[in-house]
């Protein structure tokens, strides 16, 4: 970490909050992790879920994977293998790499074994729906950045 600088999760949370408020999907994901674990902020699973969802809609693959894990494990949300599969698949399609890609692919294989053919078809349709939402979000951000400065998101 910082050479000679003490780790301060609360300070990191302030900077992630600022970046997240300005639409940075990576910062939203990192801040969500902090809320989920109570690192530098008061633990709040609902806030973590909202931030993961916003980050995922912004096209951030790690947030999609994190949502998949939440749904697979039934953490913060009702356990749902179909939705977990969809988020994991969307994360893989979104460009996960390295060990995250390997972990998501392994989890996806496990989830696929737990779903029947009809559920798999519904999950794959949901992946398409997720991709469409991400695409619309990215297009609307491009239009805003081309025409006017972005308005801060309210967390």
Provide a descriptive summary of the structure in words.
- This protein is mainly α.
- Helix content is 73%, strand content 0%.
- The chain contains seven helices and no strands.
- It has helices spanning 9-21, 25-37, 45-57, 61-73, 81-93, 98-114, 117-147.
**Structural class estimated from helices and strands:** mainly alpha
Shape: globular
Mean pLDDT: 89
Largest sheet: none
The count of helical stretches stands at 7
H-E order: HHHHHHH
Helix content: over 70%
The number of strands is 0
Please report the distance between the alpha carbons of the first and last residues.
27 Å
Show unreliable segments.
145-155
Radius of gyration: 16 Å
Measured by DSSP, the beta-strand proportion falls in under 5%
Notable traits:
155 residues; mainly alpha; 7 helices; globular
Structural topology:
Layout: H1 9-21, H2 25-37, H3 45-57, H4 61-73, H5 81-93, H6 98-114, H7 117-147
Helix pairs in contact: 1-2, 2-3, 3-4, 4-5, 5-6, 5-7
Put the structure in a nutshell.
The chain is mainly α and 155 residues long.
């Amino acid at each position: 970490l910082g050479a000679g600088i003490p780790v301060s999760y609360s300070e990191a949370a302030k900077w992630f909050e600022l970046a997240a408020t300005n639409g940075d999907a990576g910062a939203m994901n990192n801040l969500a992790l902090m809320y989920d674990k109570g690192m530098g902020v008061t633990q709040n699973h609902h806030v973590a879920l909202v931030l993961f969802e916003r980050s995922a809609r912004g096209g951030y693959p790690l947030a999609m994977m994190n949502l998949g894990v939440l749904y697979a494990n039934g953490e913060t949300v009702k356990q749902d293998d179909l939705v977990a599969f969809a988020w994991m698949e969307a994360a893989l399609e979104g460009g996960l790499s390295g060990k995250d890609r390997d972990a998501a692919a392994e989890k996806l294989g496990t989830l696929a074994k737990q779903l029947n053919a009809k559920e798999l078809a519904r999950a794959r349709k949901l992946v398409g729906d997720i991709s469409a939402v991400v695409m619309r979000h990215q297009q609307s951000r491009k239009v805003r950045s081309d025409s006017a400065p972005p308005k801060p998101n309210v967390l």
